[in-house]
Write a structure and sequence with these properties.
Blueprint (H helix, E strand, L loop, with lengths): L20 H33 L3
């Protein structure tokens, strides 16, 4: 074995990453709704400001 290339250790099972997907989704979905709501509100507010200023 070459001493320059390190040995890659065995990776853990990826199923552990998605084991609590339902719980994670129910926990994070309110935060995502708030995040996307802020993004959409900023977009609409920008459109309103542009329309009022006449920058079309």
């Amino acid at each position: 074995m070459n001493n320059v290339v390190p040995a890659i250790p065995h990776m853990s099972d990826i199923r552990d990453l998605f084991a609590n997907f339902g719980h994670n989704w129910s926990t994070l979905s309110p935060a995502l709704w708030v995040l996307f709501g802020i993004i959409f509100g900023t977009f609409v507010l920008g459109k309103i400001i542009k329309n009022v200023k006449g920058d079309d």
